[in-house]
Amino acid sequence: MADNVQKSGNFFSNVVKELKRVSWPKRKELTRYTITVVFTVVFVTLFFGLVDQGLSWMIDTLFE
């Protein structure tokens, strides 16, 4: 039991050390990345929604 507690303590200690070494993005970079992700998600959602509607229409038309 004590060994597991010590291993957990070592793990979290190492996590803190690594987080201090991380190069965090600046506010401007983070904003740009966030906008890029949101626009990409919207574009991909619209694209696959349109493809789905088109394929559904084609299948409905063929099997009427």
Give a quick precis of the structure:
The chain is mostly helical and 64 residues long. The protein has helices at 2-21, 27-62.
Task: Note the main attributes of this structure.
mainly alpha; 64 residues
3D architecture notes:
There is one protein chain. This protein is an all-alpha fold. Helices cover 88% and strands 0% of the residues. The protein is elongated and about 70 Å long. The termini are far apart. The model has no long low-confidence stretch (mean pLDDT 94).
Gyration radius (Cα, Å) is: 24 Å
- Counting helices, strands and paired strands, the structural category is mainly alpha
Extended strand count: 0
Low-pLDDT residue spans: none
Cα separation of the termini? 68 Å
Q: What letter string, H or E per element, gives the SSE order?
A: HH
What's the rounded overall pLDDT mean?
Answer: 94
Oligomeric organization of the protein chains: single chain
Measured by DSSP, the beta-strand proportion falls in: under 5%
Note the overall shape. elongated
Q: Could you give the topology of this structure?
A:
Blueprint: H1 2-21, H2 27-62
